[in-house]
């Protein structure tokens, strides 16, 4: 089994090191990840600039390739140019911070898995639901448990597995919950400032707001101490409204 | 009616000028857009850097605000900080190049509309399906026709309207088709180079591949000379597979 490991926190982040350590003996692992943090880059790709790529060592041993681009760039480049053969799985993470609720659409971690999925490879994103005092051991053990299941079961076409892990000691995790993406999101506040030459700039800030996330969502599962597993797909069509739309929008203009 | 106009080709691009000219007398319009091209940025936001913002004039008159960030940044900043009141509509475009098939997930143009939608505002992205010899008059007239319909009909919750226009003279357009997102996509090729100091870098290149896009897709509608209208939503959950997933993934590990 050949596993491509990537992330969006960058190749030097503790989360990708923990992931690599946890799953490296499950198969032939390859690490290809951004050279610096790429959080909240969404599903960006680099078309107008060259993409640099250099080997990275850890403790004197080759660890992986650092890519001067986004998570999606890293996975594309790995599969199409760097790896000797096509990987059987793509695993992205472990992200510091949850990728649940609406923030999934901004997530570079999920983006790496999305790119794997687009290339037809079973892909998983894994994130730890905390920004402080991460207990890496827990998502590492979850990844070690899920990777063989992913290899065995595969995934439906056009679907990736988005995994979020509560920041609890492993023995306090209650189990797995298959969930839907919740609706909670950051609500932004902009702080207006002026620089020494009197140019205006803003800092984006904000706070997480709950929007009625109830039973069945990723956010609720995390609150309840479960690992959330959300099937995410890239068909963005709102199929349920197409028939209504035909009546409204295909009618000739008056 | 208050309309926020944005895009991803940047505030100086001909497409946003054509859009502004076409709809400015339909209401109170505000232009807030990236200062430079932001194509293929996906749904990125700027958290770790300040976001600069300056007024832009055209022919000596105030035209809008140029934002040193992404399309999503521009819409967030416009709604939360720059506009005197909340807009009734967000219109993003006119993009040079189609945003159909899988490329929707990389699209900055769609991202601006997604941000409007997340903020609860009826939002539309409009793109012209060509990279050369654009006939701006056609999508401009389409926008002028659709904006009042959008104001009148609104959109279902969490749904935006993704519009693609064939690059044909207006009188050769056959009408509107409500479509689903197709599966065609760029297939990447990476060109490997070395710089004068022998560092490796790559250029991402590729070509559009058709993946069986048949009746009902955005790409087929464009080929047939129709304007495609795709309802896009941001719930990425693959709801249809959740029950199956529960059986597979919630079972205790052996």
Descriptors:
two-stranded antiparallel ribbon, 254 residues, Stationary-phase Survival Protein Sure Homolog, Chain: A, 11 strands
Would you mind describing this structure in some detail?
- 2 copies of one chain form a homodimer.
- Chain A is an alpha/beta fold and 254 residues long.
- The first copy, chain A, has a single domain (2-184, 213-249), classed as 3-Layer(aba) Sandwich (Stationary-phase Survival Protein Sure Homolog, Chain: A), CATH 3.40.1210.
- Chain A is 25% helix and 31% strand.
- The first copy, chain A, contains 6 helices and 11 strands.
- In chain A, the strands form 2 sheets. The first copy, chain A, has a 9-stranded mixed β-sheet with strand order 3-4-2-1-5-6-7-11-8, sandwiched between helices. A two-stranded antiparallel ribbon of chain A has the order 9-10.
- Chain A starts with a strand and ends in a 5-residue tail after the last helix.
- The mean pLDDT of chain A is 94.
- Chains A and B meet through strand 3, helix 2, helix 3, helix 4 and strand 8 of A and strand 3, helix 2, helix 3, helix 4 and strand 8 of B.
């Amino acid at each position: 089994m050949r596993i491509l490991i990537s992330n969006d926190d960058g190749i030097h982040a503790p989360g990708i090191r923990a992931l690599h350590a946890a799953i490296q003996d499950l198969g032939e692992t390859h690490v290809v990840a951004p050279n610096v943090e790429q959080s909240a880059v969404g599903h960006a790709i680099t078309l107008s600039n060259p993409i640099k790529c250099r080997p990275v060592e850890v403790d004197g041993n080759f660890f992986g390739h650092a890519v001067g681009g986004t998570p999606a760039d890293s996975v594309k480049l790995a599969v199409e140019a760097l790896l000797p053969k096509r990987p059987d799985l793509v695993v992205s993470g472990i992200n510091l911070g949850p990728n649940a609720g609406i923030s999934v659409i901004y997530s570079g971690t999920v983006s790496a898995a999305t790119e794997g999925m687009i290339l037809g490879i079973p892909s998983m994103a894994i994130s730890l639901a905390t920004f402080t005092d991460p207990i890496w051991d827990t998502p590492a053990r979850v990844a070690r448990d899920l990777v063989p299941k992913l290899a065995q079961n595969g995934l439906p076409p056009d679907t990736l597995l988005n995994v979020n892990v509560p920041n609890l000691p492993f023995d306090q995790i209650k189990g797995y919950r298959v969930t839907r993406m919740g609706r909670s999101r950051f609500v932004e506040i902009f702080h207006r400032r002026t620089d020494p030459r009197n140019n205006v700039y803003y800092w984006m800030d904000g706070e997480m707001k709950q929007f009625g996330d109830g039973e069945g969502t990723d956010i609720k599962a995390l609150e309840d101490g479960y690992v959330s597993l959300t099937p995410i797909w890239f068909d963005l069509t709102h199929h349920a409204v197409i028939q209504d739309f035909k009546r409204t929008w295909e009618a000739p203009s008056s």
